[in-house]
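Board notes, transcribed. Complex of a protein with iron/sulfur cluster.
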Amino acid sequence: MSHPCLRCGACCAAFRVAFHWTEAQPAKPDGVPEAMTSPLRRHELQMRGTELAPMRCVALAGDIGVDAHCSIYAQRPTPCRELLPAWEGGEPSVQCDRARERHGLTPLTPGDWASADAVT
Ligand code: SF4
Ligand code: SF4
């Protein structure tokens, strides 16, 4: 079974994604593509699209709740790496639950991980 996040993408269209400018190109050559960011505060950038309403990160590909995925997965910024899917590691995740709720998706359960493939 595919990884639950590959059938979701809700958190990429639920929260502003802000991070230090050093996580993006050109400061970090393998970081977030500069064109996908916009200035936020003095030392911060944000993922384009997460400042809008309705929000959707510009790097999110596919349909939310169907086949969504991050098109810059290896280059994604810290907030994206730190938002853990509920129950993947045996712990709940309020942010994951909240994002899914905003998109009409039920919260993940431990059972969703029983036969899930890893995201590589
Ligand atoms: S972390 Fe949660 S909200 Fe984000 S894509 Fe995965 S399942 Fe969806
Ligand atoms: S950079 Fe990728 S993981 Fe982060 S919000 Fe955008 S699409 Fe989601």
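The two ends are 14 Å apart (CA to CA). The chain is about 10% helix and 10% strand.
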